[in-house]
């Protein structure tokens, strides 16, 4: 099974940015733990702060991988383009969020990804990614 985790803007700052919301761990450290926990899965990771690069990666992997785990960060609430990219590919996408977006500002309650995603996992911290991987198994 081939899965890719795609993280959007500011998620490269995990471990530094708002630790009261996102925790103290870097994503790179957590990614290593995921690779160890799921050794039989080909797991890739990609992060970009640029909307078009995320769309390009969805197009690149969206016809050949078994699943995409996407945390589009703030683009979740603003990017019709990312939502359309998900609609245009055949690989299923699980939308994940580290924090409970519904307990935060009201603009974070809207997602342009959810209508096109296979499922949504919100608010379980970094474990949200683990749960998304399990959903593909």
How are the secondary structure elements laid out?
Elements: E1 2-7, H1 19-22, H2 27-37, E2 42-47, H3 51-61, E3 67-71, H4 80-88, E4 93-97, E5 119-122, H5 127-136
Helix pairs in contact: 3-4
Brief sketch in words of this structure:
The chain is α/β, with parallel strands linked by helices.
Keywords:
alpha/beta, globular, 5 helices, 137 residues, aromatic amino acid biosynthesis, EC 4.2.1.10, Rossmann fold
Helical amount among residues, as a percent range?
25-40%
What are the segments in which pLDDT stays under 50 over at least 5 consecutive residues? none
Q: End-to-end distance, in Å?
A: 9 Å
CATH topology: Rossmann fold
In total, the number of domains comes to 1
Sheet with most strands: strand arrangement: 2-1-3-4-5
The structural class is: alpha/beta
Task: Count the E strands.
Answer: 5
- Average predicted confidence as pLDDT: 91
What letter string, H or E per element, gives the SSE order?
A: EHHEHEHEEH
So, the CATH homologous superfamily? Dehydroquinase, class II
